[in-house]
């Protein structure tokens, strides 16, 4: 069973959602839009480093930008392993939350 | 990026960002930061953007540091995993390496503990730097004596007349003191009489009672905890009364048992005031008391010594007349155990010499095992050149390879350390019983020792691994794969030298052990000039036990058929004899000598089968023997007085009024064969008889023993029953030499073991290296034994060289040691031949085991080996 921490899961999901446009800034923005928290770049890079080590993500250099002095971005892509990790996370989520009614504010 | 092109991201923050290597290589940190910067600038303005930039640059840097630590840990564990994998792959080498190194380390740890222990004697006294003992040195033209004790009268003078002395106290000892409480009655040894001030000078812990007043009154006594347990199990003895040598004393305190590391130990201390009327308390020439002082702070020792020199000069009129020179000196109590070379020390002293020898041996053994380790490691690496070559081709960088190999050797040395510590812990109880010390691993658990040991181990690993790792990682892959020998010429010579060195040391140790063993055997079994077989000795306090009833006692004991004889004396051969002044009649002033004496009865000489060289033994018929105080001397005493023919001595007299010499005995060894036979005189003085010797017929030992016990109870109801056999008591004289023998034996064993390890590893290396050559030789028709001989040639050469060096050196050293004994064997041929043969056999077996495998392999396989 592949274990992912919450942050790892969210970052993987962001990369998945962003398809070809997953790099530092975008992943961070996506994370903020879901959780509302600003992710520190350093801790994000660290989490990504560990994800790369485990073989879920790969770093690719993109083509340079179409302007003078354009930098190369580093894009992240999920590996098949990474996709599998997400699938498992989803399955666990479903199983765990199955049959639990919508938690609304009123509780008796 | 759109507007705000003039506003760039903060420069210094950027340089910080650029320093984060991983974030720049694997992620686009500059890019991300820039983009976010401009976004914020658009939304919230340049100032907020810059703030954000700076703050996040710093927090990200902190995360970067965390990453570096993490990566370091990961890399460390990867190296560790690979190291362990490699070690397991080359099991044989690794085990040999680890074992050899841990033997050496274990030895060192134990020796370190021992050295620390010996150096720790008496280091716990408060204000220890001001605590001194005052021994006495007497010099005449003919002899010099130095005693640790001094005259009892010295202390009052020091206390009263010298302000430099803060405290002054005495301790004097008695053994075989009868101590009685209710129905419990025992002989106690190490019973001291002391001044109250002793507690201010030496640090003696009090468990009950008041330290400041314990011995301020006469007839008071303090006991150690274990002594108190014997008589007062469970009760608190303070305030109770206990009977010591027929005097009732009040117990005023309980003190802790004397620790192992002190030069003076006691079980009981009685107040010295109880003895204040004794004649020796004020008699200057008698040195009975260990004298201690604590100097006031700031006093200079040398100046004080000079000041008390005057006291020494006025020591006694008698001494002046005899022309003796008396010197007092100040002996720091801390140094007594190791540096005091006085006769009659209370506890067996340590010796700086032996400590030094142990240290050196420890260092030697460590050197051998370390050099073995380095040798084997480099051999092992060179055998793995193929593997390393392939890894290089696959892209491993040189620094990584180097780190990997070094990591392996450090892991091995740390593993060796762990094994060494565990082994040391297991062995310490045996070592303690062997050497009579109380070592504990706990003593090493403090910061400086532990860090020192670990640092040393890591350095050994580094040192052993770096040179081979350096070379291995720097060679081109092609060369490595072709298995070119990395180490030629110089290295081989160094290796041979190391092996030869190990042989030399091992041979020396074996020769030493055998020689010591033979010398001890010689001393134990040669004829000492009297009969020590089958003698049981009863010991009594010398307090007129036999007055007027010696013959009755002998009769009573004689009633058992197994008891064939009995005799009483003041001491027995093997126990320390005291000296007394004796002089030829009429020459008291000029020719007074200090000679050892024995008070004996009529039957003593017959019982001990001591032969007469001239004259006759004491006899009951000659009443003059008892009442005129006839004297019997030994041959040495006769020679001392110029009577080279023993007959000349008969009729000569000593003392005024004169007492005649009626007999001269042949010299007999009453003191152990380490010393030559000193002059001795004997006379009859029944009040001083303290030992009762019974000759037994060994056949009915147990019934004789129970008979003796019963009789003893009958005849001496107030005296505890205490017996021993003469021959074992005499053997105790050689305890020290036995210790040396055992230690030597152990060192030899260790030396051989470590050498074996070394040879084993090298043989394996050689065998592997020359596999192809062996295969070719076999194909050409060489036999297995022929190949064995060829490969062993190197080792045999080392052995021969080692022997040539070791024999002369060992002969010289062992000869010197033997000469220090008055009676000794010759070194002889046996130890030398045995030593070399033993090493030869061991080496051959070890080497053969390794080489046999390659030598008998199928040549086809060997040639395929590439």
Task: Describe the protein in words.
- The complex is a heterodimer of chains A (108) and B (866).
- Chain A has 108 residues and is mainly alpha-helical.
- Chain A contains four helices and two strands.
- Chain A has helices at residues 6-18, 24-35, 41-54, 80-97, and strands at 57-61, 74-78.
- Chain A has a two-stranded antiparallel sheet.
- In chain A, helix 1 (6-18) packs across helix 2 (24-35) and helix 1 (6-18) packs across helix 4.
- The longest helix of chain A has 18 residues, at 80-97.
- In chain B, 52% of the residues lie in helices and 15% in strands.
- In chain B, strands 1, 4, 5, 6, 7, 8, 9, 10, 11, 12, 13, 14 and 16 form a 13-stranded mixed sheet that branches. In chain B, strands 19, 20, 21, 22, 23, 24 and 25 form a seven-stranded mixed sheet that branches. Chain B has a four-stranded antiparallel sheet with strand order 18-26-17-27.
- In chain B, a hairpin with a 2-residue loop joins strand 6 and strand 7.
- Chain B is globular.
- The interface between A and B is medium-sized, with 19 and 23 residues.
Output the keywords.
heterodimer; A: 108 residues; mainly alpha; two-stranded antiparallel ribbon; B: alpha+beta; 7-stranded mixed beta sheet
Helical stretch count of chain B? 28
Computed Rg of chain A: 17 Å
Strand percentage of chain A lies at 5-15%
- Structural class given helices, strands, pairing of chain A? mainly alpha
- Class based on secondary structure composition and strand pairing of chain B: alpha+beta
Beta-strand residue fraction of chain B: 15-25%
